[in-house]
Design brief:
The structure is a homodimer.
Chain A: H1 5-9, E1 16-29, E2 32-39, E3 49-50, E4 53-55, H2 62-73, E5 82-89, E6 100-108, H3 111-119, E7 124-128, H4 140-154, E8 168-169, H5 171-182, H6 188-198, E9 201-207, E10 217-221
Parallel strand pairs in A: 1-6
Antiparallel strand pairs in A: 1-2, 1-4, 2-3, 2-7, 5-6, 8-10, 9-10
Chain A binds a DNA duplex through α6.
Chain lengths: 228, 228
DNA sequence: GCAAAAGTGTTGTGATTACACCCATGT
DNA sequence: ACATGGGTGTAATCACAACACTTTTGC
């Protein structure tokens, strides 16, 4: 952005492009990492599943646009979700219609809220990450794979697992989420201690109810993150 | 990118934006992590240092545009550099002239090549990361800070330090680069072993020449990375 | 009292650090 | 010979994992 100043003042001299945001909306449903998809009803890729997304408005920031799309698709009532920029895709060939630069975000929601979004009946479906074999439109399969990688990589350093759980949760719930993301079982005592030593959670003194056996203690997340 | 298909076919219905790439071109010069900057000669921010950048062409991918800007500013002769997408900035307020979405990249060059770029006399200057106190145009100070964070975070997992060194280097050179990036001294034997065990380097059998004292062995990087 | 899952104590292992030392080279 | 930095061995520390064990609840 330096030696192109003359161009910049002439609207026809720079190449205008459409900028969109695409959302990888994830949750852990019954031990499976799951993504929210939307069936396209127009070509190209009519009838194919794709990531929800939308154009960035003229006076709208990128994070702002992502948050708008998030609340419009998963119009959850005033609750919070993790929302983080993932990567920007801008290959000239990625959309056959026109030049589109797309800023991908990933969003994390508790399973209950994902289910609500699906139940709202706006054509949204949830699909386990393992079940989608190249059935996504555009380059969206690669975007989902990248989101999964990022999730795995940050899991131990950043308190993002809590965005996939309700406000109160047990250590077993938390471990299930970690195992779903990493795709492998974890040792229970080791996991417990790592979490308790992390400073991310605090015990509430409350306990589960309606359990068949001994009820587990409920914990609360006390860590901060990019929640919208 | 799903429910806006009708808009997408009408050029006037989507908000066109200019898309640029900005480069954080870094090297380690005399133990200091250093960034390549360019003095702006046009308002806004005339006379102020900024990151080199440029518009993304109509048929050009983002990585491609970044590589083009890299080779035009630091027109190094056929050598290789580390080039990696960093983050995308799109606040409506970030450029007072018009709506610009900028995809930031960071690039890593050996100190010698950075010096060549400066010597070429295209108005480029190098500045140590510690020395720039909010003297950058636009939101570029934040971009540089983010690049530094990313560099620190990936240093132990990804073989990017070698992009800051010539093809042959000593373990001491490598340690100096790590220390400059992390901003703290490292233990010599521990660092040695970590590097030798990493599988990223291999000894050449060659040795330094013209040293005052015992010459160190020269190593070569055998790891792959996103080099352009 | 028994089944099932919560929660804890103890031990072992691998990785990394810290410190001390030896080695090789040019003056 | 000696100063200087390259290079190596050994012990200590830490984090984490594995395992066995105790505890608590509902039926």
């Amino acid at each position: 952005m330096t030696q192109h100043d003359l161009q910049a003042y002439d609207p026809s001299a720079y190449p205008p492009m459409a900028v969109t945001v695409d959302l990888v909306l994830m949750s852990v449903v019954e031990g499976q990492l799951t993504v929210l998809l939307q069936r396209r009803d127009q070509p190209p890729f009519a009838g194919v599943q794709a990531l929800p997304g939308g154009f960035v408005g003229p006076a709208e920031g990128l994070d702002e646009a992502a948050a708008r799309v998030l609340s419009s698709k998963a119009g959850f009532g005033g609750k919070q979700a993790w929302l983080e920029q993932l990567y920007t895709f801008g290959s000239p060939a990625r959309d056959p219609r026109m030049r589109i630069v797309s800023v991908a975000y990933f969003a994390l929601l508790p399973a209950g809220e994902l289910a609500e979004a699906v139940a709202a009946g706006q054509g949204l479906v949830q699909m386990p990450l393992g079940a989608m074999e190249d059935v996504l439109a555009f380059d969206h399969a690669g975007i989902v794979a990248l989101a999964h990688e990022r999730l795995k990589g940050k899991l131990d350093y950043v308190p993002l697992a809590f965005a996939l759980l309700p406000a109160l949760f047990t250590l077993r719930d938390l471990q299930d989420v970690h195992e779903a993301i990493l795709g492998k079982p974890l040792n229970k005592p080791a996991f417990r201690r790592r979490m308790l030593d992390s400073g991310w959670i605090e015990p509430t003194g409350e306990r589960e109810v309606e359990t068949a056996f001994r009820p587990a203690e409920l914990y609360r997340c006390v860590a901060e993150g990019p929640r919208v």
